Amino acid sequence: MSQPRTAPDLLAYDRDHVWHPYTSMTDPAPVRMVTGASGVRLRLDDGRELVDGMSSWWAALHGYNHPVLNAALAEQAGRMAHVMFGGLTHEPAIRLAQRLVEITPAGLEHVFLADSGSVAMEVALKMVLQHQRGVGHPERTRMLTIRGGYHGDTFGCMSVCDPVGGMHAMFADLLPQHVFADRPPAEGCSEADLAAWTASFRALAAAHAHELAGIVVEPRLQGAGGMWVYPLECLRVMREIADEHDLVLVFDEIATGFGRTGSLFAADAAGVRPDVLAVGKALTGGYLTMAAVLCTGEVARGLSASESGVLMHGPTFMGNPLACSVALASLDLLEQGDWAANVARIGAGLEAGLAPLRGTPGVADVRTLGAVGVVQLDHPVDVAKATEAAIEEGVWLRPFRDLIYTMPPYVTADEDVSLICRAIARASEVA
C-alpha cells in the first residue's frame, strides 16, 4: 500500500481508517489537518491560523510550543523517558507527588499517578470500595452522585455519569446501578430552591446510607455533562452528609483543577476538603496524558485493611518520567504566571463579550465562571455549521449538545478573547 503524502491524501486515509472521539466510522464528521501550533494558535494545512478556544479539551493552559515545557520534556528525555513504577521510583514522580500534596487541600497525603482522567476516576472508585471493605462494610458498594455529571468513558466511570441525559445511556443495563440525586439548582438560585435541593439530597442519602460507599461529583462546574454551574453550598452539604453517614467524598477536578473556575481547585472556593481528589487534563499543560488521585490517610488505611491489602491498580505508564517532569514545569509556570489574575481577566472578557447574547433568538442561557464561557441554545447545535462559522471568524471551537462554549488558555490576550466571543456569537446565529 502506498503511503499517503499530501494533505488531501492524508485526510482521505484518516476518513477511511482513523476513529475520532464520538464519531461514526462509516459516516465520519469532517476534520481539519493541523500542521503546527504556537501560543494560542493552531495552524491548518491550508495556512489559516485559528485561536484555540478549547485549550485542546481544557488541557493546554499555557498555550502551545512553550519553551519552558519544551525544555523540561527534552531534558528529561535525555535522561530517562520511562521506567516501570513497580518496584522502582524516580525523582520526577516523587517531586510531583510532593507538589500535589502541597497545593491541594490539606489532609490529602497520598498520591496515585494515573495515565488519564478516566483511569484516575476508576482508581478513585476502587479506593472508595476497597476502603469500605477494609473498615468492615463490604455491603456498601453504591455511589451517590448527581444528575448531569460526567466522569469518563470507561465502564466504572460510565456508571456514575448521568444515566439518562449523558453519553452512555445505551450501556445503562450493563453498568452497576448507583444512586442519582437531582442536579443542584443553578448558581444564583433562590434560598428556597437551594433548601429544597438540600432536603432532597439529605433524604436520598439517608434512605440509601446502608448501601452507599461514597459520594462522587464534579465540584461547582459539571463539564461534559452540560457546563452547569451550581452553588458552592451544595459541596458543603455533601461534606456534612458524607461525615454523617461515613461515606467517602470524591471530587472529580479533572476539568476544574488548576485554576479553571477561578480558584486553584473548586474545593478551595467551597472550603471543603474531599477524602479523594482526582486531577488531570491541565496537569501537564496539555503536553502528555497524565492524571493523579490523592486521598487522605484515613482512606489509605482503610483500603490497606481490605483483603487484598493493596490498591488493585497499576498502569504500565504509571509515573511516566516525561509526564512528571513536564507537569512540574507546568505547575511552575502556573504559579509564576499569576494564573489567578489571568483567569479573572479572561473571565471578565468573556462576560463582557457574551453578555449581549442574553435574550437573543435561540439563546436559552449565557453563563461564565472563571475562564469558562458558555452559550446554551434552546435547540441542539448543528455542530458542522457552528464549527465552520467559528473557523470563518478565525477561532477553533468544539460545540456539543445545545452548548457553544470556550475554555481558552490562560495566556490568551484580551483581543483574542474578544475574537472568541465574536466567533461564539456567529456560531450561535447559524447553529
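The record above closes out task 2.4. Task 2.5 opens with a second protein, given below.
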Amino acid sequence: MRPLTVLLTALPLLLLPACSTGGHHKAERPRTPAAGAPAPAGTPSWAKGMKTVSRSELPPEARRTLELIEKGGPFPYDKDGTVFGNHENRLPKQARGYYHEYTVPTPGSRTRGARRIITGEHTERYYTSDHYQTFEAVVQP
C-alpha cells in the first residue's frame, strides 16, 4: 500500500511540468485568421485570409510611399507605377495590368532594395519587404 501512496502523492509533481509553459510563451495578436475563422473586424474582403499589417506598423518609408501613391507622385524611381506581373502568384489572380508596383526606399541601400508596395485597381495595398517572396495586406488604420 505504501508504494501506491507515494506514487499518488508524487503524481501531481510529475505532471506539473507538462502543464506549464515555463514562462516562455509570449502572447501575441495573431495577424492571420485561422482556416475557416472570420477575419478580424474591419478587414477588407480583398485581404481576408492574408497576413495583414496596419499602416501605422509599416516602416516610415513605406508610409511615405503610400502618401506619394495617394497624391499621384512624383515618384523617385523610374520603375514606380509600372505593371507588377504577379509571376510568383502570391497575390490573388487578376488580369495583367491590374497590379502596379512602387519602391519603398531602404535606408543605406545604393539600389532600389527589396521593399515594395503593390497596388490593385481598387483600394488594395500590399507590402513586401523581401522582393515578392511574402506579402502583407495593408489595412487601416
